[in-house]
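Entry 12.
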Amino acid sequence: MKILTRLRARVLGRYIPKGEEGAVMSEYVVLVGVVSFSLATSIAALGPVLFASYERARGIIICPIP
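Predicted 3D structure (tokens):
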């Protein structure tokens, strides 16, 4: 992971001192945590609505008499 951090810093034109590599990694962990939490929250909020819509459409498609 240290190699990726240094390579990314070199590509972006920045130098990250050795003491700050852990800080950069923890920022990425926080970012991934926030994104995954927001994704899980949106799925939990929209899940029942999407499921009801799916069941309604499925019932219309499967209905033998139009």
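Annotation: The chain has a mean pLDDT of 82. The radius of gyration is 23 Å.
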